[in-house]
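User: Hi! I'm working on a homework problem where we have to compare a predicted structure to a textbook description. Could you give me the structure for the chain below?
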Amino acid sequence: MSHLNEHSKTSFNGKGHGTSCKKFKIKNNAIVKVVAGTLSTIPANSTVRLPFTTFLFNTTKVNIAPNGGITIEEDGEYFITFSAIFPNASTGLTFSIFSPDFSGTALTGAGAATFSELVCLRRGDIVYVNVNTGSSSFPGVGVTGILAGILTVVKVED
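Assistant: Happy to help. Predicted structure tokens:
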């Protein structure tokens, strides 16, 4: 049995427990961008910018950079998050996040990577991610198979 009105939805599981969910709307001034990108092959011992060129969610004042990433259109403080999945056999991968200078390296393990931070950005800054598959000092095996990533940028309210 469920009850639905314009402000909330409450579901009952037959045992008397209920959950309440509010519907939320994005404010007209919200700045949010979520983009995705995939690569099927990355050579060993190379660095490649992840091609974040597919919109998953978009509001105004943020654009996709032509070479992959997110271009900021308004100064402010932003929450950045990145996550990726990749074949487990791909050892030695390093994901470096730039906003626009080096921000940090994603935590990796068991075929997944994650990173998040708060950062002050200016109009024209580009947020992007490079993946490195090793070097002559620390050789990697490259990537064969799908590497998929999602990059999210959200402006924190003033």
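For your comparison, note the following. The CA atoms of residues 94 and 127 lie 17 Å apart. Residues 1-26 have pLDDT under 50 and may be disordered. Good luck with the assignment!
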